[in-house]
Design goal:
Blueprint lengths: L3 E3 L17 E2 L2 E2 L2 E4 L7 E3 L5 E21 L4 E13 L5 E2 L9 E12 L8 E8 L5 E8 L4 E5 L4 E3 L5 E6 L2 H4 L5 H5 L3 E2 L2 E4 L5 H14 L1 E4 L1
Parallel strand pairs: 1-12, 4-14, 11-16
Antiparallel strand pairs: 2-3, 5-6, 6-7, 6-9, 6-10, 7-8, 9-12, 9-13, 10-11, 14-17, 15-16
Length: 224
């Protein structure tokens, strides 16, 4: 899959990635933190006789974050942090927590690159929920993604890193958006594994390709 070009807009999903090189000066942290929050509302599947789909748990595993930017004094800063951390899609909390330590100042031409972990058998992205058919039958659903995807975010305006108040990059990782083009017919016809709709590279692969493309295209970020 191709790296995602992430547009900077307001977002419903507040919180995700970053890696930790935590320094303290005068008992304060500075730098760039990243967080995430998942939409709690179910999406409607199809326009008539609709079913519903809601995700209630999941995670993203990050392995590397790169920050590039030009300071107002004309110098450039490029920082790469490598650290494996798991971010809960519902709470937005990372374990272990992380923060990129960036010299204080105002930056332009800011680019943030976030690489997903892909070197283990454990899926790097998992979202779990429930699909309820128009007949009211509830079926567990699980989406698994395992690829070293790189998400890139470019700030549309200057970003200020204060010595005492870290800037925040918020990234939208919302499976409700990833599944927004999936129909009830597709879910009704999906293969069940022990009663669960598993969507991965090896199970319900056609659905996986649709959702993975949406994950690529719909992920958004904004600096604050």
């Amino acid at each position: 899959m191709k790296p995602a070009n992430i547009l900077f807009v307001s977002m419903a999903f507040t919180s995700l990635l970053l890696i930790c090189s935590c320094k303290k000066e005068k008992n304060t942290e500075r730098g760039l933190t990243i967080t995430t929050t998942m939409s709690r509302e179910a999406i409607t599947v199809n326009s008539t006789l609709s079913g519903s789909l809601v995700f209630n748990s999941g995670y993203v595993v990050v392995r590397e974050v790169v920050f590039d930017g030009n300071k107002s004094d004309g110098s450039s800063v490029s920082i790469t942090e490598e650290k494996i951390t798991t971010i809960d899609l519902v709470t937005g909390k990372a374990n272990p927590p992380f923060l990129i330590d960036i010299p204080a100042g105002t930056y332009t031409s800011v680019n943030l690159g976030i690489e997903i972990q892909d070197e283990t058998s454990r899926p790097s992205v998992v979202a779990q929920g429930v699909y309820t058919s128009p007949a009211g039958v509830a079926t567990p659903i699980r989406f698994e993604f395992n690829s070293g995807e790189v998400f890139e975010a470019n700030a549309v305006s200057a970003v200020t890193i204060d010595q005492n108040t870290p800037a925040t990059a918020k990234i939208t990782f919302d499976p409700h958006i990833w599944f927004s083009t999936i129909t009830k017919t597709q879910l009704d016809n999906a293969v069940r594994t022990n009663g669960v709709i598993i969507i991965s590279e090896t199970s319900n692969a056609a659905l996986f390709n649709i959702v993975a493309d949406q994950l690529d295209n719909a992920t958004q970020a904004v600096f604050k």
